[in-house]
């Protein structure tokens, strides 16, 4: 009868669903068991190399397929650039903080930029760690020649800053394009670069170019020293 046929159909669906769920759970349990055995009781009986290899094979890490192998190297380049900017801006800030120069507005402004570069480098390291990888495998060194002093004038410091900001923005935009312009699109990486770097860098470039425009206009007047003093006070706000 129709009632019996309907009952049989529902029974078949239930059996198939149960078997599928049980099989999937078995696969999950098998992988979980491998992870537990690998990092639990047996971790002292296997080598570190085997442990790392098996860890990758059973896919216990947070590294998803979308996170391409070359993404780490691209982000590492951004980290190195931010760390270089951090030291560079700190060097400029220390110059303007000297008693013989005493441009405290410029000092505070470049010190804030140095702190910002450090924060961005930390964000990059944390993001790559969240995606299941690590940065700076070979370490990193920054060398600054103490004899070099390119920042005697206020205009030179802002011109140098604008050049550095544009270059950093170009590298971020290139990595953003790479995250979206490949066969394996990584929307999370693109979103991270856009929100944490490109948007802020665009605002910073506009701000620096505005300061330079005001400074050049004031330098063209007869009261250029007063103009520099006003810009210095503006940067201190």
Automatic annotation (TrEMBL):
Record flagged with keyword Plastid: no
GO CC terms: cytoplasm
Keyword Iron part of the UniProt annotation: yes
Residues bound to Fe cation: 82, 201
GO MF terms, alphabetically ordered: ferric iron binding; ferrous iron binding
Matching InterPro entries: Ferritin (IPR001519), Ferritin-like (IPR012347), Ferritin-like_diiron (IPR009040), Ferritin-like_SF (IPR009078), Ferritin_DPS_dom (IPR008331)
Xref: Pfam families: Ferritin (PF00210)
Similarity annotation: Belongs to the ferritin family.
GO BP annotations, alphabetical order: intracellular iron ion homeostasis; iron ion transport
Ferritin-like diiron domain span: 65-219
Function of the molecule: Stores iron in a soluble, non-toxic, readily available form. Important for iron homeostasis. Iron is taken up in the ferrous form and deposited as ferric hydroxides after oxidation.
TM region(s), chain numbering: none
UniProt keyword terms in alphabetical order: Iron, Iron storage, Metal-binding, Signal
Signal sequence interval, chain numbering: 1-26
Stated name of the protein: Ferritin
């Amino acid at each position: 009868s129709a009632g019996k046929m309907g009952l049989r159909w529902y029974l078949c669906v239930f059996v198939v669903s149960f078997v599928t769920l049980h099989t999937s759970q078995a696969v999950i349990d098998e992988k979980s068991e491998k992870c537990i055995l690998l990092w639990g009781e047996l971790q002292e009986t296997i080598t570190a190399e085997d442990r790392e290899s098996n860890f990758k094979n059973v896919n216990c890490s947070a590294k998803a397929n979308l996170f391409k192998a070359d993404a780490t190297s691209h982000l590492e380049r951004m980290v190195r650039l931010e760390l270089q900017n951090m030291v560079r801006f700190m060097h400029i800030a220390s110059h303007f903080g000297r008693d013989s120069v005493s441009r405290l507005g410029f000092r505070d402004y470049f010190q804030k930029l140095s702190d910002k570069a450090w924060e961005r480098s930390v964000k990059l390291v944390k993001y790559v760690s969240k995606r299941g990888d690590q940065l700076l495998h070979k370490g990193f060194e920054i060398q600054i020649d103490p004899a070099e002093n390119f920042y005697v004038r206020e205009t030179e410091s802002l011109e140098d800053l604008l050049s550095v900001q544009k270059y950093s923005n170009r590298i971020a935009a290139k990595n953003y394009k790479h995250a979206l312009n490949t066969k394996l699109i990584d929307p999370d990486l693109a979103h991270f670069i856009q929100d944490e770097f490109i948007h802020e860098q665009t605002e910073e470039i506009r701000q620096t170019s505005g300061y330079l425009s005001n400074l050049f206009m004031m330098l063209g007047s007869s009261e250029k020293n007063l103009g520099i003093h006003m810009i210095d006070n503006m940067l201190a706000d």
